[in-house]
Amino acid sequence: MSRIRADKFVNNAANGAPELTYGAEIPVGVGLTGAGGINITGVATATSFVGNVTGNVTGNVTGNVTGNATGLSGTPNLVVGIITATTFSGVPAGYNNLKATLFS
Hints:
Blueprint: H1 96-102
C-alpha cells in the first residue's frame, strides 16, 4: 500500500479543493475535524446529531424537540400539554359551552 504525506492537498490549479472522484473513506475510530463546514447533497446518515436543523425535516423524530414549531401536521394526532393561542377557529355552532370554557 502506498502512503502520501503532505501538509495540504489542493486542486491542480492550487486554487481550490481537490476532487475526490471515487469518494473518501474514513476508518472506524477516526474523525473528520476542521473549522469549516460540510455541504452534502443527498442523504446523510448519523447515529446522533448536535446543532441546529434548518429546512424541511421528514421522517420520524425522537428525543426532545425544543423551539418554535410551525405548520405541524401528521398522523396520529398531535398530543400537546398546554396550548396558547392568539386566535382560534373551528368551534362548531351549538358548542357555546366549549367556546366559553376556551375563552373565559
